[in-house]
Amino acid sequence: MTTVPITLEPMQTKYNLQVGHLLVHGFRGKFQHLTNMNDDDLAVFFENLFEHFPTEPASQRMVALQDGEVIGTISIKWKPESDKKQKQEFPSWKSFNRLGKWNLLKMLIGLSLLDHKPQAGECYIADIVVHPDHRSKGIGKLLFQWAQHFVQTEPHLDVLSLHVVGSNPRAKHLYELLSFQTHLQKNSLVRHLFFKESKWDYMVLNLK
Q1: What SS3 state is found at 77?
Q2: How many percent of the chain have pLDDT more than 70?
Q3: pLDDT for residue 103
Q4: Phi-psi region of 139 (alpha: psi -120 to 50; beta: other; left: phi over 0)
Q5: Residues with Cβ < 8 Å from 32, sequence gap 6 or more?
Q6: Which positions fall inside the N-acetyltransferase domain (predicted)?
């Protein structure tokens, strides 16, 4: 039996909904404390977020594909060379009216609390998710290798970083196997109120 190869390519609009479902698979535990939306509505929220909110210039999302299906994704961001901010216009409410204004507001506030502003030289992994049916097949490692290669080929970047919740020691152990080291442990009351997660580890991998 021939194994269908896995390929990586930059995010495209046609993958918005599939990536939305992936993010629900990966982070449902956080969002279930934030909103009562079902999984399909949450996926549509992310689909609309990708479609209507401009992508940050100093960022990149990649998808892992197998036989045309998105089975993994990683999003990275870094400090832009210019501090000039893009003008962002809030999209039409009609794009999100299926979700309800209160759910939309809570999701946007929650995502803002998870946002991290990278420092000079830092490449931050905003999210990395592998579909549950495709875990333990090396896809996560493939996505990490892509991120490491990206940093190593960019002269202004020298570290990879990420956050992991204290309630997920398995993920932290995986990152330690990939040579990430805990740089800072944070306790956040606000994040506890929104996500029921108070302890967050900030981990760093030096690559140069």
Answers
A1: strand
A2: 92
A3: 81
A4: alpha
A5: none
A6: 22-208
**Residue 81: alpha-carbon gap to chain centroid:** 22
Task: Using DSSP, state whether 117 is helix, strand or coil.
Answer: coil
Q: Which of 18, 26, 125 is nearest to 65 (CA)?
A: 18
Burial of 71 (0-12, 13-18, 19+ CB in 10 A): buried
Which tokens hold the place of 6? 């896995």
Amino acid at 77: K
Paired strand residues for 161: 124, 204
3-state DSSP assignment of residue 141: helix
Q: Which of 58-72, 98-112, 118-132, 161-175 has the lowest mean pLDDT?
A: 98-112
Tokens of 193: 């109120």
Reading the block at residue 149, the tokens are 């290669």
- Tell me how long the chain is: 208
Alpha-carbon 17 to chain mean position? 15
19 within 8 A of 51, measured Cβ to Cβ: no
Kindly state the helix (H) or strand (E) to which residue 149 belongs, with its residue range: helix 139-153
- How confident is residue 34, by pLDDT bands cut at 50, 70 and 90? confident
Task: Return the structure tokens found at 21.
Answer: 């479902």
